[in-house]
Recover the amino acids of this structure.
């Protein structure tokens, strides 16, 4: 297992209900903490990739580069803080089963 305080996140491509054939990206936590969001995803969606991030800012910066948005910015200091240790612990416990 890794020792860095990182969270594994998924990027899903979800069909756009208003534009047949187009897909919209969604970013959510891998494992149990992403289960609720994953349950809402259209059955025709697919997971494009997974990546590690240390904070919400880190995750959104990568995600914005991926989907060709402008540089991610925030005025919320909380976004720069590392992900909660409890979230990382839950995910690592889940991953250790594999």
């Amino acid at each position: 297992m890794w020792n860095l305080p990182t969270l594994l996140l998924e990027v899903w491509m979800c069909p756009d209900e208003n534009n047949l054939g187009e897909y919209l990206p969604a970013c959510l936590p891998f494992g149990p903490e992403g289960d609720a969001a994953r349950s809402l995803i259209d059955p025709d969606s697919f997971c494009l990739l997974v990546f590690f991030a240390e904070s919400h800012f880190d995750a959104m910066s990568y995600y914005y580069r991926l989907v060709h948005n402008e540089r991610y910015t925030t005025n919320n200091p909380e976004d720069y803080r590392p992900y909660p240790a409890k979230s990382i612990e839950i995910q690592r416990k889940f991953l250790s089963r594999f």
Summary: The CA atoms of residues 57 and 76 lie 9 Å apart. The chain is about 30% helix and 25% strand. Helices lie at 35-40, 56-66, 85-95.
